Amino acid sequence: MKISRKKFITGLGLATLASKSSFALPISLPAKPLTIGLASYTLRKYTLDQVIDICQRLDIKDVALKSMHMPLESSDEELKAISSKMKAAGLNMYGAGVIYMKTEAEVEKAFYYAQTAGLKMIIGVPNHELLPFTEKMVKETNVMVAIHNHGPGDKVYPTPETVYEKIKNLDKRIGLCIDIGHVQRLGMDPIASILKYGDRMYDMHFKDVDGNEATNQPTQIGRGVIDVAGVLTALKKINYTGFTTVEYEKDADHAEAGLAESIGYLRALLAMKK
C-alpha cells in the first residue's frame, strides 16, 4: 500500500498517541525492529571524519563503507586504524562496497581487505566466471558476499533475478544486496523481488527514485514512486534480519539534509506501529 506524504504527516502526528489509542499503521512491522544503516557512498564527497560525525548526529550505528572512505589500497595498519576509529565512535562497520572483482587477484584482495578490517560482509560484484573462486574464498574466510544489482546499463547483474540464478546453488553465505532504486528504474516491482529472492537477501540499498525508467533520478525517500510502506511490509514477510541500509544518491555535495529527511521518513513509518 502506497502511503501519500499527506497521510504520512497525519500518521506521524497520530504516532505519538499510538501507545494510548487504537491507531494502527496500515502495514505490519517485524517483531524484530528493522535497523536503519548507511551506505557511505551517500556521503562520497565527505571525509571519513564527516561521515562519522553525521552518523552520530543522525543516530546511525551500522555502516557499510565505500572505498573513498576506506581505500582498497590501504595498508594493514590503515585498515585497522579505520576499523578502530569506527568502533571508538560507536559505529558498527558491518561491510564494505560496492567492490568490483574482475580477476582472481581482485577477489583475493577484497577478502583480505575485509578480513583485515574485521568486516562480516562484502557488498560486491564478482564477474560470473569468478563465482566458484569467490565461493572458495567465502568458505576459507567466513566473510559473506552480498551481490549488488545495478539496474539499467549493467551487463553483469542488472536485476536481483540475474544474481539469484547465478548463486542459488552456491554456498549459502553468498546472497543478494537488492538495490530497490535500480529495480524500480527497470520498470520492475522491488517488492516482488524482495518477496521472491528474500531467502538469500543479506543486504539492501534503500532509496527512492522519481520514476520507473532508466533516465529517472534518485530523490528523498518518500518523495518518489517507490512504495516505501510496501517495501517495509515485504521485509517483514521474509523475516529480513539484515540492515535497512539507506543509500541516498542525490545532492552529492550537500547530501546531509536529504539524508536526514529520508531517515526521518523511514523512522516515522517504523514508529507508527500498533
Question: Care to describe what's here?
Answer:
By secondary structure, the protein is α/β, with parallel strands linked by helices. The chain has one domain (48-268): Alpha-Beta Barrel (TIM Barrel). The chain has helices at residues 5-15, 48-57, 76-88, 104-117, 131-141, 160-167, 180-185, 190-197, 228-237, 256-271, and strands spanning 35-39, 62-65, 92-101, 121-126, 144-148, 174-179, 201-206, 208-209, 218-219, 243-246. An 8-stranded parallel beta barrel has the order 1-2-3-4-5-6-7-10, surrounded by 6 helices. Strands 8-9 form a two-stranded antiparallel sheet.
Going by helix content, strand content and strand pairing, the class is alpha/beta
Q: Tell me how many strands there are.
A: 10
The count of domains is 1
Can you tell me the CATH topology?
A: TIM Barrel
CATH superfamily: Divalent-metal-dependent TIM barrel enzymes
Spatial strand order of the main sheet:
1-2-3-4-5-6-7-10
Distance between the termini: 17 Å
**pLDDT averaged over residues:** 90
Q: Return residue spans where pLDDT drops below 50 for at least 5 consecutive residues.
A: 9-31
Q: What gross morphology would you assign?
A: globular
CATH architecture: Alpha-Beta Barrel
% residues in beta strands: 15-25%
Helix content: 25-40%
Secondary-structure blueprint:
Elements lengths: L4 H11 L19 E5 L8 H10 L4 E4 L10 H13 L3 E10 L2 H14 L3 E6 L4 H11 L2 E5 L11 H8 L6 E6 H6 L4 H8 L3 E6 L1 E2 L8 E2 L8 H10 L5 E4 L9 H16 L3
Parallel strand pairs: 1-2, 1-10, 2-3, 3-4, 4-5, 5-6, 6-7, 7-10
Antiparallel strand pairs: 8-9
